């Protein structure tokens, strides 16, 4: 079932997304440190799982 | 305030308990489950911590988990999408592992400890590592650098700590990871990933840098210390079993099979016995200036303590370990209090303590303090009185592949299967006949 799901859903979506995004940053480019987002409400952020 | 920190579901599950900002107990689950690198939810380690502190779960003000599970799950799904059609194995593993177990960590904590949701907190993975290092360090202010395999998305972060504030400002994200680069070489050299890295580290000084140009093809380094992997050589982003690919083997040759000898005619033999850098002692001494200030439990088990420290805004010097019964416990700074310091052995003493003197005349030492380890201190003192050598060799009590013994029965079991001649259990001495 998972294999079927992979073939019919994940592969097409992944292949299509790859046409215009590079979420893993795999394309050659200068390495760099990315700024991290800061959350001013630390107490609320600590309660989130995301 | 009582805060329980928990780390699990990747490797080395652990729990740590802070009371009023002081570490009172910490333990890895493997000690109790007898499963090396046990990553399951650390029920037994949690019970140990609560028992040691004399608390029940209802006495806990907060329970802090060492990472943000939903961000990590997002990273895994994004990676699956980005690496189709080769990511089927990762997809299956993610779906079964995460949907059945790892996504429900909050439910698991709530069910096991019977505490309300608003007492369950989540730190970011690298915040947990940073907190375990900074809040247990002797520094009031510090620049902070964390480097590991991968947490949620981050594989390395930089930031600063001031008093009881810790801020990570920049990061490098998966799949660009020095930890995973290290793991690829660990696997290539025939060792188990997340287990054999220390062997690679131990072997490194014996080698000569013959492959610098090849290694530089794997990773690009920016002028600001940032880095990026050349992913043509790696497979960890779409494989659950392999970390490096065919191109990696074309670059470095065939990997070493685990059963083969480490040193061969092809690989060359330890250069240690050949020419060494003329200033090797200076280089070692420079490095060792910082060793005694390093985090004592830099792995994910120590992140349980970091999560508790981070979410609890612990006062500085939070981690005095009096009362904690674990070698993973960090502590206040004390010279060579943990076995992280390598120093030259006096020339006249090298023959007297040959078992702990390295071939270059150095030794990795640890001082034992009467106030915190009175029985161990007394043992060494008596041994010194009897032999004239107030030094003992300390090593972990376990055989290959098993966790350190935790009970008298486990000690006996390991003893009979080992080459040891005698076992001292409290006031009983056991000899083999």
Please give a structural write-up.
The complex is a heterodimer of chains A (50) and B (433). Chain A is mainly α and 50 residues long. Chain A has helices spanning 2-20, 42-47, and one strand at residues 34-35. The relative contact order of chain A is 0.07. The mean pLDDT of chain A is 81. Chain B is α+β, with helices and mostly antiparallel strands and 433 residues long. Chain B is built from 14 helices and 14 strands. In chain B, the strands form five sheets. Chain B has a five-stranded mixed beta sheet. In chain B, strands 6-7-8 form a three-stranded antiparallel beta sheet, covered by helices on one side. In chain B, helix 6 (125-134) packs across helix 12 (300-312). The N and C termini of chain B lie far apart (53 Å). The relative contact order of chain B is 0.13. Mean pLDDT of chain B is 86; it is low at 320-334. Chains A and B meet through helix 1 and strand 1 of A and helix 3, helix 4, strand 5, strand 7 and strand 8 of B.
Structural features:
heterodimer; A: 50 residues; mainly alpha; 2 helices; B: 433 residues; three-stranded antiparallel sheet; globular
Largest sheet of chain B, order of strands side by side?
Answer: 3-2-1-4-5
Task: List the total number of helices of chain B.
Answer: 14
- Structural class call of chain A reads mainly alpha
Which two chains form the greatest contact, residue counts included? Answer: A-B, 29 and 52 residues
Mean pLDDT of chain A: 81
Derived from helix and strand composition plus strand pairing, the structural class of chain B reads alpha+beta
Overall, the morphology of chain B is globular
Cα distance spanning the termini of chain A: 28 Å
Oligomer: heterodimer
Range of strand content of chain A: under 5%
Brief account:
Chain A is mainly alpha-helical. Chain A is built from two helices and one strand. The longest helix of chain A has 19 residues, at 2-20.
